Amino acid sequence: MTYQPRAITTQDGIDVGGWTVKRYAVSALRDTPPEPVHAFAVLALRRSLPPPHPHGGSHAFSVVHEDEDGCYAVAAWWSLNRVILHTRTWLADWSDLTAPTEAPGHATACLWELAVIAHERRSWLTHIVRPPQPDVPTYLADAITDKF
């Protein structure tokens, strides 16, 4: 496979089971994936996220990725201590985006999804971990949209 940049777009944030979720999309096929692909990502989040932290501060992000062979979703959430990132990765065939399966071999992310994860790490560190008081609104607004 030859590496080609792909469009990464930022989607509107959502609440999933008490978690505030930043959402990203990657496509090898078009600028922005269609709604069924985004619904697949939400389903992956619902299957991945634990109960929210008891006193708030439950933040997550997702990366949905469409390719010719199917769709992938990375669900990622920050631990209560703010320094551990948990992830689960899901796949689905184009024939049934409502039936995600966990990625085999504990796969985490591809090169394009890692661009989002790297951005989220920097953003989390800059706006949540390092300041004396977390700046959640700035963290939630800090997103990437470009070709990577």
Protein architecture, described:
- The protein is α+β, with helices and mostly antiparallel strands.
- The protein has one domain (7-147): Heat Shock Protein 90, CATH 3.30.565.
- Helix content is 26%, strand content 33%.
- It has helices at residues 35-48, 111-129, 136-141, and strands at residues 7-16, 19-27, 59-67, 70-78, 85-92, 101-102, 146-147.
- The chain has a seven-stranded mixed β-sheet, sandwiched between helices.
- A hairpin with a 6-residue loop joins strand 4 (70-78) and strand 5 (85-92).
- The longest helix is centred in the C-terminal third of the chain and has 19 residues, at 111-129.
- It is globular, with a radius of gyration of 15 Å.
- The model has no long low-confidence stretch (mean pLDDT 96).
Mean pLDDT score, rounded?
96
Number of domains: 1
- What low-confidence regions span 5 or more consecutive residues with pLDDT below 50? none
- Helical fraction equals 25-40%
Rough shape?
Answer: globular
Spatial strand arrangement across the major sheet: 6-5-4-3-2-1-7
Q: Mind describing the biggest β-sheet?
A: 7 strands, mixed
Total number of helices:
3
- Global structural class: alpha+beta
Per CATH, the architecture is: 2-Layer Sandwich
CATH topology heading: Heat Shock Protein 90
H/E element order? EEHEEEEHHE
- CATH class value: Alpha Beta
SS strand fraction: 25-35%
Gyration radius, to the nearest Å?
A: 15 Å
